[in-house]
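[audit] Reproducing an earlier prediction to check determinism. Same input, same settings, fresh worker. If the tokens differ from the archived copy the diff job will pick it up downstream; this log only records the rerun itself.
[audit] input (391 residues):
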Amino acid sequence: MTILLTGADGYMGWPTAMKLALRFPDELIVGVDNGFRRLWVHEVGSWSAIPIKSMDERLEAFKEVFGQDNIIYRHLDLRDYDIVKALVEEYKPRAIVHLAAQPSAPYSMLSPKHAIFTQENNVKITLNLIHAIREVDPSIHLIETTTMGVYGTPNVDIPEGFFEVEFRGRKDTLPFPPQAGSWYHWSKVHDAGNLMFAARAYKLPVTDLRLGVVYGTNTEETKKDPRLATRFDFDFWFGTLYNRFCAQAVAGYPLTIYGKGGQTRGYISLEDTAQTLVLAVEKPAEPGEFRVINMFVETVSVRQMAEKVKEAGSKVGLDVEVMTVPPPRPEALEHYYKPDLRKIFDVLGLKPKYTVDKALPEDLEVLMGVKERILAKKDKFLPKELREKRG
């Protein structure tokens, strides 16, 4: 038996590969990537705060540490349909965990070129996987992390994918309207629509995990050996809010709150993210089912996150300051935000190991050990135009 994992070299991908391999020791985990994440971060002039090894070195370390040899790596470009189909034909996986994407909203907004690349890259890969599954084996379970960002921040409660509507005397259950806030998020709106159609038209089993903001430096597996570390981005373009705030705190750089700081999102630790993906493999969707699951553990506003990092920083000897900067993209500075959160617990059975408060002391300690790498790129916390507005 085989499980195919795309985006295997990424922040979430590598820890997930290890967790899958350990959970299914008799199955082959085929990790696929083209290395673009490393190139994108290099393009914006930054790097991973935590040094990361090549995939060959990681695989050798995994074998030494855990005594298993059931992860292999294929360096492939999944934008080519013939490559994708040949890959699925060769390994005939029972599940595909699809994490390969350009994941940054700010990067997608840099220019027309970046917007077009993000849409083409993300949508094309998902479509290639859909059609390869259809042609090779429609029973393959396709699991993709889209994003909670497809919903936007409507002034009503957010369901898990679908909601009941009554209009002009008639009722129906419809997909919740998307209100994405970047070209990246709109690429995931398109992915979600294509996945929904594929489940209906081709009877594919599909799980759409609407992922919140992922944070943290480690999983249980990456802690075992420095060679098993996953990347940790902290720049404006690829560093998620929690990760960037932690790096700013360590560097002695004020935490940057956008406007009033009322923007609220769902958060989930890297450890719980990888565990959720394993659970999705263990508990597959039914043929023809488009299963949408909101994937986060708690909601935190930007202002609350700054306060939490400041408090945790004081406990480890950091004097953390806070400053206000203009928001990086058009969005409400304060808004209602109440997404449903049930299926990740009731359907998949996740038992979270972390909250933001629990994770912060550990993550700050880890980053204090790589302070010099963060300081070397501290000019990447904000883009030039925001640094100039800050004065």
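[audit] rerun output stored. Observation attached for the diff report: The chain is about 40% helix and 20% strand.
[audit] end
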